[in-house]
Amino acid sequence: SVRVWCPKGVKRLPKDITELDVVLSEFEKIAADYKQRVDSNTCRKAIDGFCSGFKDQLADLITEVQKLKNVKRKNAKVLTDINKKRQQLLQVCEELTGTEQQLKQLQREYAQLQERESSLRHATQFLTDLKELQQNCLDYREENPKEKAVYGTSSLPALLVESRRILGAERHFQNINTRLQEALDVQREELSKKH
Predict the structure, then answer these.
(1) Are 21 and 61 within 8 A, CB to CB?
(2) What is d(CA 55, CA 14) in angstroms, rounded to the nearest whole number?
(3) Which of 125, 129, 127 is nearest to 117 (CA)?
(4) What start-end ranges are recorded for coiled-coil regions in this protein (predicted)?
(5) Where do the domains of the chain lie?
(6) Contact 90/34 with Cβ under 8 angstroms?
């Protein structure tokens, strides 16, 4: 089995094993085996020095590789987070655009309703004033029955309205008369058929 080499300050998991860990593990075995076969203390010291320097370099390399892996992992996580945030931002922008359109529509409708309300208020006030004026005229005629009504050019619109009302009533009576005449004609025909 290969030992996971954990230099100081670097967090490593069993899944982080690389070829360098295998090389370092095998190197340690080979160096220990070779050292046992050598009799000379000087050679053993030289082997220890060489092994120590090689292990340090390999450990530094493992550390750098692991740091790079950790940075790549963090980078991938950051990119994932950025993509999520981007999607959320796009969704919020779409919602905002829809909300702005709804707001504009509601503002238009509100302006129309205000205009209608204003028109209705003016029309109600006009009708109230007209009713009051009509009542004043009726009261005046009751108080002064002998006084003859005089119409001037300013009364022309009122006279036109009055004439329309009279003409409308005349047409209505003509329609009634025509229907009565048709009903009478039908009854006469039925009576003549019976006799």
Answers:
(1) no
(2) 20
(3) 125
(4) 68-143
(5) 156-195
(6) no
Give the DSSP H or E segment for 186.
helix 156-194
Beta strands in the chain (DSSP E): none
> Looking at per-residue confidence, does 111 or 19 come out higher?
111
Report whether 55 contacts 24 (CB < 8 A): yes
At 152 the three-state DSSP class reads coil
pLDDT tens per residue across span 56-70: 898 888 888 888 888
**Per-residue pLDDT reduced to its tens digit, 176-187:** 889 888 988 888
Q: Are 87 and 42 in contact (CB under 8 A)?
A: no
Which of 90-104, 152-166, 172-186 holds the top average pLDDT? Answer: 90-104
